[in-house]
Amino acid sequence: MKTARKPSGNIMRKYYQLILVVVCFISIVTLLIYRHEYYRLRYVLEVLNFFGKPGLSEIEFCGPGFNATMLSEILRNTSMEVRETPPLFQEIDENFYSYSSFLRSYNKYDSLSPTYAHVIDTIVIGKADVTPNYRCNIWLENNSKPKAGRFNYKSISDVINNYRLYIFECSLSKNFGKPKGISFYLNDYNTNPMHAPINKVIQVNTKRKPRVRSNIKFVNNIEPAICVIPNRIPIVSQDAFIEFLVFHHLIGVDYFTIYDSMISEDVIKRLNLFPSDITQWEIQFYPLNYPFLFSKSYDIVRNAIELDCLFRHFRYDKEETNKISHVAVLSWDEFLVPRVHNNFKDVLDDFDPIRSLKTYIVEPLMFCLNQADDFNAEMGYPDITKKTHYYTIPQDTTPIKIRNFDTMTLFDDLFNLTSNVKNIPLDLLGAHKYNVCRDKNKFHPEGYNETEMQVFPHKFEGAMLKFGQNLVSNKIYRLYRSGQIWEKSSNDNVRDML
To answer: Can you tell me where the transmembrane regions are (predicted)?
Structure first.
């Protein structure tokens, strides 16, 4: 009797199942290999991001002509980490340049009843002899067509070299959605508003909850922040960079916002990656472009940066942790030096214990780097501890203004900084400016010689000497001096640029 043959379909089904098992096995092995290679590649990229990439020096300088398009290219091709929208000068027309835009938020406190649903304030530098006459468009989230806003403006500064600082205000009476951008264009029908440059807006609070005051003394902690801008000659050396950060950290400053395009963003990233047991500071970095001749527009650009700095720090509410209470704008060659006390908090406890003053002014003292070293200064200490005489000499200086956020509960308070002002006396705090003193009318890079320096009136001020030991003992400073942060030149007289 013949045995029945198995259907051929069952045999083929088994072959299909075998093939599927083999394909699944190969897929799993391939996936594991891909996953392994992916993590290896990611590790390599993390190492590259930490140590930086070659070729960055070609794009570090963002001088005249630098714009938002160039910045986006840099961000795509470097390891730069900018946490917030960077401020950038953009041309509205040949007379006015916008810098940064801030959206007032009315949702923080229910008690507020704003006149307009949205108000956007834009920091603008413009010709003092030209009246702003513009229209404005507000660009909304998930909407390709802007809404026309109501334009207004106000002057914020005096005339400086025929320039003035303005606030361009654009408002909407109805809430059509969340604003994302703002643009300005000429008030005529010959200009296409769609071609106007767009500023991305940064949301801020319109009100800050004040901190509770004691009947005897305002004992809340002080959290100062410093916004750093370039020197009048916009170059900073490695030594000056580290000395500035370490010194101000020693006197109690943990928050730095740097507006400078001569500093590599890789340097900022390395400093922020130091373990918390070495430093507790936080450094934010913004590249700085300027469409003007920097030496002639320095003061007006500095005013614009200060306003941007105040707007950004005001956005954080008093209910949040790590709240900034005081803000000052300094260049790399300016140092706030306590004379009697050792830190910034003790100076303010002595001078303004109830924090009632809106602005503290510190008059600058010029310490010439081309003066002879002090005989009492230790060998190997930084130059700022060796120059102990300040000179009465014609040099470009700017009074240092420390702004007190504890007196500002409304955003509009930022537009009235000229009231409630008082000078801090020298016996409490000095603003030391370290620069090479030279004849402003002649080009002489070395400045006055020691004999010529003796002609100018000068006075001893040794407040910086007492910080010398703490400065050179600081862990960050010692890492720098040992070459652990950057490779230092064997020639001590060469101050290599970052």
So the answer is: 15-34
Same domain flag for 335 and 433: yes
- Look up the domain containing 116 and give its range: 92-205
CA dihedral 92, 96, 98, 101 (to 10 degrees): -100
Please give the structure tokens belonging to residue 482: 């040992």
Task: Tell me, yes or no, whether 339 and 253 share the same domain.
Answer: yes
Residue 286's alpha-carbon distances to 36, 46, 86, 88, 271, in angstroms, are 36, 22, 6, 9, 15
Residue 417 domain-assigned? Answer: yes
User: Residue range 329-355: average pLDDT?
Assistant: 92
The pTM assigned to this predicted structure is 0.77
Structure tokens at 176: 């059509």
How large is the angle between the packed helices 8-51 and 265-272, nearest 10 degrees? 100
381 and 430 belong to one structural domain: yes
Q: Specify burial of residue 168 (Cβ count, 10 A radius: 0-12, 13-18, 19+).
A: buried
Residues 290 and 418 in one domain: yes
Mean pLDDT of 54-67: 37
Residues contacting 379, CB < 8 A, separation 6+: none
CA distance 377 to 472: 13
The two three-digit tokens of residue 275, written as one number = 């373990």
CB 151 within 8 A of CB 168: yes
DSSP-assigned states of every residue in 225-249 = EEEEE--SS---BHHHHHHHHHHHH
SS3 137: strand
| Structural Rg of the chain based on CA atoms | 29
226-277 pLDDT tens trace: 999 999 888 888 889 999 999 999 999 999 999 988 887 677 777 777 766 6
